[in-house]
Task: inverse folding
């Protein structure tokens, strides 16, 4: 079978989350992604969490399905080989993805001397090119001061800006490659983590709220802004999130809990219109007060039985261990997942792309490569280096296999 | 000038965040995106926050640069018009993006009778097609139990799974359109919010940590896992986030604060190797104890002066109001932003795509359309309906202009 992204080759010189996720996203759609690393691995190669033998579960999870080439990029001869790899090949090739400073041998104008239609996407921390990471961008986003229930800032744990940047990278490269296929033109694409954050905060209306209404969002605990949403404790010590956005959700909640009549009393009592999202938001504390004993009287299984199939929007909170142990969606019964044996680590449940394409079957998944495991094949196949020359480069420490 | 995504037309039948963001992402790269809504607007049309006249800042922010067509999709004649729009046109057309149930007239097999190479991406809540929203997916992700400092779950406020799903949609549609341009084949693409969450949690190593090491991540407050990161109060009541991932960051922190010698005492005192990320994580409480008085003795401006340009990774916390008022990156000095006058709302600072493409200039940005403002032009230009026929459809309440 043909993969979806036939004849697309991306060279990645990257570290940490965003750029590796960008490359992996394209690899999962069938692109050939070659990650070039320094001989001992890049700065993310031993990033926590590690297994008991010191292999990084983080690196293994963010580099699945790539080919690994190890080159001493701090030496001119290594830089020459890397540059040749980046600029080699035909129509769908000549694409570079990096979060390294694009200067010296990685400068776009230097690289495009070798290939005029090169597409290069460079991720920086700030729009001015200065360094930043998800944590030093997130503190500026406003979200920590709107998270939790107190006035103290609370950091997110999911690296939102890295994840979004990685997906913008995949989108941007596909858009630029489409443009190149039609016009013959390559280009440099710039993206900063800060701009991803700023665009997203604005796209969600948070900055317009300040500019237009003169006030920023305040922390609401686990409540939902502008509609009804609240978390409840169950009798057996679990918690659930319950949401009613549309009138249909709201009616379903009253019916399924048998509390519709009592909930209806809140309208006149609080002088709010419970037939609107905004009215339910304004009356949320009274709504939660009526619903709370219902959940407290039931174990999670009883809540599930009472709400499932009723049209009520709800979900159970899980920690990571419960997610792995109890959630049926986290299993090979879900076509997203396959059991993959990872180099140096062993088997664990491994996702492919969440996109299910009707025209091509799901790929058989592979783990992250052993560092340098594709060096020999790539130098031979793409750069046409003879085996004695590859042996010389290995001997002299220019590449590792 | 030619936009990047020349001749790409996407029809969007959507609501809320993910699907509208997917469409807007493509519109910002130059695609023609036609959002079809019911006559009075879809369920997200009055979503909070609202301005004083009841216009939604949320809707305005998530639908910028689209064309709006209003059709009574609950009537057979309306469905016929919508179907004709979805399937009309040439090579880069015939692309549908939706988060509505794809049944009845929106069923893929029904639609492709009109256009065999249709590309349709449907977003659902769960992989089995059942409904879920960001809040009822997030509670299952494990992150709320790892956020904050207590054992209670803390919801994120940024709708991570919606944002990631929107960006996966843009990536998936571009990949499928590339495939169609090469093979002539259309396809249905399925994506669920739950799969986006599950894939991301796994891609970041959180589930492998449970499966391989037998333990899930616990809450760490605002600290960073596996390296050094902590937030500090300043003398003037602000807070800053400080991070040291590489050894270079770590040395810069000691030098800039003048505390290198005292920080070095932590190694033998705590029996940790401060030349490693893991050692700094293990010694983090002692590190924070040494650094804390340095920040408490300085106002934010003094911290900035002492740290800027030193290679220390740090950032100031801001709430949304401070982001708008104080952050120089949130201004039209940053090419990401333009001042746009939004229909019914007025001007506010508005981002385009965070991707900066060297081959095409930044677009002149526009706001979200007035509902139905493109109905007449689209029916005339794409469906070639004569003006008297459009007038009849308006009179009979099948479309609105």
Result:
């Amino acid at each position: 079978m043909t993969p979806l992204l036939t004849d697309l080759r991306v060279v990645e010189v990257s570290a940490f989350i965003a750029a590796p996720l960008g490359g992996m996203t394209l690899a999962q759609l069938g692109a050939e992604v070659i990650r070039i690393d320094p001989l001992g691995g890049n700065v993310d190669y031993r990033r926590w969490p590690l297994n008991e033998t010191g292999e990084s579960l983080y690196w293994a999870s963010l580099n699945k399905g790539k080919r690994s080439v190890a080159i001493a990029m701090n030496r001119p001869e290594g830089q020459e080989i890397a540059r040749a790899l980046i600029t080699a090949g035909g129509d769908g090739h000549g694409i570079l993805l990096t979060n390294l400073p694009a200067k010296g041998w990685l400068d776009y104008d230097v690289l495009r001397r070798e290939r005029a239609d090169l597409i290069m996407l460079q991720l920086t921390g700030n729009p001015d090119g200065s360094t930043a990471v998800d944590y030093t961008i997130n503190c500026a986003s406003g979200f920590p001061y709107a998270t939790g229930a107190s006035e103290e800032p609370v950091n997110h744990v999911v690296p939102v800006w890295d994840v979004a940047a990685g997906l913008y990278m995949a989108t941007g490269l596909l858009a630029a490659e489409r443009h190149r296929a039609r016009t013959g033109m390559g280009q440099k694409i710039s993206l900063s983590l800060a701009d991803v954050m700023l665009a997203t905060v604005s796209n969600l209306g948070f900055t317009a709220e300040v500019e237009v209404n003169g006030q920023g969002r305040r922390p609401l605990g686990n409540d939902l802004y502008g509609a009804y949403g609240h978390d409840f404790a169950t009798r057996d010590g679990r918690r659930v999130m319950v949401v009613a956005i549309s009138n249909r959700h709201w009616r379903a909640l009253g019916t399924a809990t048998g509390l519709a009549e009592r909930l209806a009393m809140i309208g006149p009592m609080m002088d709010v219109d419970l037939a609107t999202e905004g009215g339910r938001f304004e009356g949320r504390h009274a709504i939660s007060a009526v619903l709370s004993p219902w959940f407290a009287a039931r174990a999670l299984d009883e809540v599930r039985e009472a709400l499932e199939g009723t049209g009520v929007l709800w979900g159970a909170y899980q920690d990571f261990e419960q997610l792995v142990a109890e959630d049926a969606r986290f299993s090979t019964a879900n076509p997203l997942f396959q059991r993959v044996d990872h180099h140096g680590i062993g088997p664990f449940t491994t996702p492919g792309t969440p996109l299910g394409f009707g025209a091509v079957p799901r790929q058989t998944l592979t783990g992250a490569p052993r560092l340098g495991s594709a060096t020999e094949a790539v130098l031979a196949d793409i750069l046409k280096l003879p085996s004695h020359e590859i042996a010389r480069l290995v001997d002299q420490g220019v590449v590792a296999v």
